Amino acid sequence: MPRSKSNSVSFHEDVTNDTSHLSEMKISDVRRSVEKRTMTLIGKNGCHDSVYINAAKIFQGIRNKKPKDKMLVRYGDDSVSPVLTFKDEYSQRMSYELAFNALKYQELLEEILLDSCVYPCQSIPDELTSLLVVMLYDLQDRKFEAREIFDEEEPVAEVRKIEHFLYSSRIKLAAALARCRIKHDALSIEYILPETIRKHEQRASALPLCVWINTFKTSLQDVIRDLKNKGFTKVESVSDFNRYTYCMDQHCHDVLFFPSSLKEELLNSDLFADCKLLLQDRSRSLAVHSVQALLNTDGDVIVAHVGSHLTVAHMSALRNHSMSRVFVCGVKSSARADELRNLFNHMGCENIQLLYEDFTEIRPTDPRLQNAKVILLIPQCSALGFSNPIDFILSEHGDAGLLRDLLQGSVSKDKLRSLAERQLTELMHAMKFKVQAIVYCTSSVYPEENELVVKKALESGVEGHKLKRFRLIPPVFSTCSNPESCTGFFFRTELSEISSGCFLAVIAREKDSSENVSVQDILARAAAKGLLGSIAEKTKDDENKQWKTTQHGSGVTGSGTEPKRAEFPHRKDISNINAAVSVSKVVTKLRKKNVNQPVSYVQLKKPVSPAAGTGLPRVLKHTAHLPAVGKGHGRQMLARKARAERKKVVLKPVEIVLPPVISPYVRPQPGMPTSSSYFDRTGAKCLSDRALPPPLPKSGHTNRAKESTVAVRVLKLSSRFTEKHQPT
To answer: Where do the SAM-dependent MTase RsmB/NOP-type domain residues begin and end (predicted)?
Structure first.
C-alpha cells in the first residue's frame, strides 16, 4: 500500500535526525573507524547484524513502489517510521551503501526471488521482505559464501533467521541469477543497470580526492614538505596525475587534489589521523573561500545551517588570523552542541559560536549578530550535482530520498517546488540582516533552486529597514589562476569526471553614492567642513596670490581674497536652486501675457561664471546698469574679467528661453528673437530680481507699451551678449 505524504516526510525527517547520531560518537571512534576502513572494504565477509537491520529500514523508505495489481513482491507497512541507530561512521556508511545497492538492483533481486521459487514463503512475513532483499544482495555479492560471524557483535534474531533461509536456498538463488544474466546478456549484474547509472558510478569512483589544509594544525608549506618526504610529486593539474602525485586548486589556496586510487592510503596516513588534512567536496571549499574574499579583518560570519561540521571548521580556519567569529545556526540540542564542540576542539577551532535556533527563527536585530558582515547560506537542496550521494548524506545529513532521485535521474515536481520555496524563504530572511553580502551555494542542477531563487529574492525588495538594496555581483576568490572561470554573475561547475556540480551566487548591498565621488569632490567637502585645517588654508593662500596677480580690480573683495563661491565650487548646486526659483517667478509673470506663438531659443556656448547674489551672469548685470559715458571702459573691464574667469572656472552652456511678447506699438524686427530670458540650472549660479525688469502694471496701453519696451531692451541685451561671447 502506498505511503501517505505525511508518513514519507516523517520517515525522511527521522532518517535525517538519526544520521546526526554520527556526531555523537567519541573522537576515538572516529580514529578507530578510519583504521578499520581499509580492511573492511577489501574483504567481503559480510556485515554486522545491526548494519543489515539499518539497511533494511532505509531501503523500506526509499524503495520503488508499484501499483497493487502489479506488485508481486509485497513489503510491510510503511506507516511506522523507522528508528536508525548507528554505532559509528563505518556502520552508518555500510548501511546506506547496502540500502543503495539493494535499491539499484531491486528489479533484479525481486526477479531472482520469484524465479527461484524461494518467494513467497509462509515463514517470512511481509515486514521482513526488505531485510530479505537487502541480505540477498549481500549474499550474491559474496558469491553465495557464508558470512563471517564476529564474536563481539550482538546477534539479532530476524537477521539470523533470514540468513539461514537464504543460505539454505543458495543453489536455487545462484541458478536464478545465472538465468537473469543470460536473459539480459550481461557479464555481471553491473551491466544490467541503465547506462546513465553506470556512467554516474564510474565518474564517482574516478573523482579526484579533494582535501583542505587545516591551518589550526599545520601550514601549506609544512604539508608540501611532508608530502614530498612521503614521495609525492606536485603536478599542474589533475590531467597530469600519475600514482603519487597531487595538485593545487586554482580557486582555493589551501585545497589539494589527489588521485582517487590513493583514498585508503591517505585516510590511514598521519596527516588525516591528526586532522591536518580533511576530506570534503570542493563545492563547500568554494563557498567558504567566496565568503573569505568578502570579509575584512574583524567581520563576523553567519553560517545559516550546521550541515557538515567540516564546512564550519574550514570557515573557522580561514578566519584564524582575525578577530572574527563564526556563528552556526540550527544546533537545536545541547547534546548536539557538546558533540560539535568536541569535534571542533579536536580540529583546533576556537572562534565558533553555536546557536540553538534555526536561522529563520533568529531576528535580524539579534544583538549577538550585530558585527556580522557576511551570511553563508547552503540550504537543503535536491543535491543531484553531487557525484557520491552516500558522501553527501553522511557529511550533510541529507535526505535518504536522494538515492531514489539519483536513480530516477530527476526530482518530483512537488519536492522541487517545496525545496525552492524553502530556499527562497531562507534567502529573503538573510536579506533582512544588516550584512554586507550573502553567499548562496547549492549542489542542485535545477534553475528553480539556483538562479530563479536568487532573482526572486532580489525582486522581492525585503531588505532591512533603511538599508541599501542588494545587487548581484560576481563571486570573488582570493586565488584564481584562471580568471575566465571567475567571470559572470554566477559561478557553477558541471558534474564531470573531475568535479561535482556546484552553483554559487553572491549578492551584496549597493555601495553608498559617496564612494563613487572623485577625490577632488571628497577634498572639497572636507575643506568646506574645516577638516583639512592648515592644508586647506595653504591651498587657499596660493589661490589668492594667483588671483591677485591676474585679476586686479575685477570682482575681488576688498581684502584681496577670492569669494567663497570660488573656494568651494560644490556650493553651485545651492546657487543653482536659488537661480531656478528666481527665474521661475519672473518668467511666470511674463508668460501670463503670452499668446500661442512659437518660442525661439538662444544658446550661450561659453557663458562667464556668474557673480554671487545676482540674477544673471555678471556681464549681463553690469551691462544693464552701465552709465552712457563709461560704457567703453566698463566693457573692457568686463571682457578682461570674463577671460580670467573662463580660465579659472570650467563653464557650462546655458539655454535662454524667451517668451513671446505682443504689443500694438512695438513690432519685432525680422530675425530678432521674441522671448524673454530664462536660465536653467546648468547656467547661472544664482539670480537676482535686479537683472530683470520690475513687475509691470496689468492695465492700460501705457503699461503695455512699457512692458514691450522693457522686453525689447532685454532682447537686445541678450542678443548683444550672445554675439559677444560666441566661441571663436
So the answer is: 199-510
All 3 cell numbers of residue 657? 528661453
Which residue, among 210, 197, 209, has the nearest Cα to 103 in the 3D structure?
197
| Inter-residue contact 217 to 268 (CB < 8 Å) | no
Classify burial at 483, counting beta carbons within 10 Å of its beta carbon; exposed 0-12, middle 13-18, buried 19 or more: exposed
- What is the SS3 string spanning 400-425? CHHHHHHHHCCCCHHHHHHHHHHHHH
Q: What is the 3-state secondary structure (H, E, C) of 45-91?
A: CCCCHHHHHHHHHHHHHHCCCCCHHHCCCCCCCCCCCCCCCCCCHHH
CB 209 within 8 Å of CB 280: no
Give the up-direction half-sphere exposure of residue 53: CA atoms within 13 A in the CB hemisphere: 17
Which residue has 545551517 as its cell numbers? 305
Spatial neighbors of 648 by CB under 8 A, at least 6 apart, are 547, 566, 609
Query: Amino acid identity of 206?
Result: A
CA distances from 639 to 91, 116, 367, 633, 644 (A): 96, 114, 66, 10, 9
Residue 22: phi, psi to the nearest 5?
-55, -40
Q: Is the Cβ–Cβ distance between 130 and 56 less than 8 Å?
A: yes
- Which own/partner pairs from 361-368 qualify as long-range (CB within 8 Å, at least 24 positions apart)? 362/329, 364/429, 364/432, 364/433, 364/434, 364/464, 368/327
Q: Among 259, 248, 246, which Cα is nearest to 285's?
A: 248
CA separation for the pair 9, 520 (Å, rounded): 62
More confident residue, 79 or 334: 334
Is 596's pLDDT higher than 70? no
The burial class, CB within 10 Å (0-12 / 13-18 / 19+), for 663 is middle
C-alpha torsion angle, residues 649, 655, 656, 660 (rounded to 10)? 180
Exposed / middle / buried, residue 566 (Cβ in 10 Å: 0-12, 13-18, 19+) = buried
Place of cell 528508528: 83
How far lies 415's CA from each of 4, 387, 448, 488, 680, in Å? 14, 20, 11, 29, 60
Neighbouring residues of 492: CB distance < 8 A, sequence distance ≥ 6: 450, 501, 502, 503, 504
Distance between CA atoms of residues 597 and 586, nearest Å: 19
CB 499 within 8 A of CB 282: yes
Per mean pLDDT, which range of 105-109, 182-186, 537-541 is the poorest?
A: 537-541
Residue 237's nearest CA partner among 208, 216, 265 is: 208
- 3-class secondary structure per residue, 354-378: ECCCCHHHCCCCCHHHCCEEEEEEC
Tell me if 358 is assigned to a ligand binding site: yes
What is d(CA 321, CA 306) in angstroms, rounded to the nearest whole number? Answer: 23
Burial 155-170 (b: 16+ CB within 10 A, else e): ebebbeebbebbeebb
At residue 8, the 3 state secondary structure works out as: helix
Mean per-residue pLDDT of the chain: 75
Rounded CA Rg of the chain: 40
Least confident of 235-239, 241-245, 658-662: 658-662
C-alpha cell at 245: 602525485
Of 572-576, 664-668, 703-707, 714-718, the range with the lowest mean pLDDT is 572-576
pLDDT in tens, 557-567: 333 334 333 33
Q: Which of 179-183, 346-350, 493-497, 646-650 has the lowest mean pLDDT?
A: 646-650
> Which residue bears the cell 539670480?
687
What mean pLDDT is predicted for residues 430-449?
95
